[in-house]
Amino acid sequence: MRIKEISVKNLFGMFDHVIPMNLDERITIIHGPNGVGKTILLKILNSLFNSQYYFLHTISFTEFRLDFDDESYLVITKKQENKKIKKLSFSYYQVDSEVQTFTYPLRTDIDSLDFPVEIIDDIIPGLERIGTRKWLYLPTQETLNGSEIFERFGDSLFSVRFSNNRFNRLVKGQPEEDKWLSELKEKIKVGFIEAQRLFSFSSNRTPRSIARSMVPSVATYSQELSEQIQETLTEYGVLSQSLDRTFPVRVVNQKSSSNFTEDALRDQLSKLEEQRNQLIDLGLLEKDENPDFQVEQEIDDKTKSILSVYVEDVEKKLKVFSEISSKIAVFKKIAESRFSYKKMSITKEKGFTFTTLNGNPLSPTNLSSGEQHELVMLYELLFNVEPNSLILLDEPEISLHVAWQVEFINDLQDILKLANFDVLIATHSPDIINERWDLTVELKGPNK
């Protein structure tokens, strides 16, 4: 299932927007003047599909609607029950089916509740208590009181369960989603690459607390890539052991001679060696002491039979690297074409690292902000996106040189060839759009 149109009525009390999605090319770009709600629309979508309902009640709108490619649609409306409780109403319309509805009440009066404020710092990343009921939110440097914390982070507060009985009493009253709504959202995975993407939160969970800190995203992703490579190498090792152990039996039990001709067999061996060398260049395999594998003498039928089993085994082994090698190849190609005077290396120990032209090592955290933004977006799109999902990308132009902005859509199209997903981009930059105005939807001011 895919979203084919997004619409909102009375956003901020004045904007009506309709965004038809470009399902064929899978890229939709929204643009318009500051204040019309580009980023907010991305945040509404992200909050909806990640069940962050407390954020939805902080945004003023009368109706938010999603039309899907199977002719069904979901409508979200808001109702003020009283001063302390608001309600979100979800209605799902399908062809030849009854309307399914779900209502979610939202309490907004934290200061009137017996709330264990001492645990808020542990639950919400980036909060630092600076008073009895005041917190500093580090990413934005905002000072927030209890009610503002509740409005902004209520979803996180009510999604965490602690042994604290007072806290449990608060969360027991929150309803579970209806099954139909959970199942609908499961059909469309949504990811959000925010404008603030250079830092992420790491957590070190202990039985009694959650200690968190902000770390550079490039450091996190470099470590993640290292772990992905090591997991792939483990899979490769397990498969290799299994095939090697049964190799003699399979050779002996082979009832007929190989279907390969001698020329075809030599050609296949050459292709496998080329593939292995590519994996070495990408940092996925170690370089052999004797890298060349050439069969010079004539191959008789018995040898041909043995080599045919060998070729089949190597094809199975190297296939393990198929997905990650394709992603790393695109990752390196784009990064190295953008970063002047630097060379990228990929290793299983460190993920991605850099050296200057004179050979000095350069940590990813010491790259320029533009280079870090480029790396983070590339990594997110290549390695952290589920197939058939919707990715929300806010202001990809941040810190990027104009020449990089012009190439962005081309880079994105190369990435989309590896995985099928839809992208909704919010931008202020005509250079990001470049010549692809056919992919754009303009968000305009209120109707007069």
Give the biggest beta sheet: 6 strands, antiparallel
Backbone CA Rg: 27 Å
CATH homologous superfamily (4th level) name of the domain at 324-442: P-loop containing nucleotide triphosphate hydrolases
Q: What structural class do you assign from the helix and strand content?
A: alpha+beta
* Poorly predicted ranges: 160-173, 204-212
Strand runs, count: 19
CATH architectural group of the domain at 324-442: 3-Layer(aba) Sandwich
> Fraction of residues in helices?
25-40%
Number of H/I helices: 13
Shape: elongated
Folded structure, characterized:
The chain is 40% helix and 24% strand. The protein has 13 helices and 19 strands. With 448 residues, the protein is of the alpha+beta class. A six-stranded antiparallel sheet has the order 2-1-4-5-6-7. It has a five-stranded parallel sheet with strand order 11-17-18-3-19, sandwiched between helices. A three-stranded antiparallel sheet has the order 8-9-10. Strand 4 and strand 5 (73-80) form a beta hairpin.
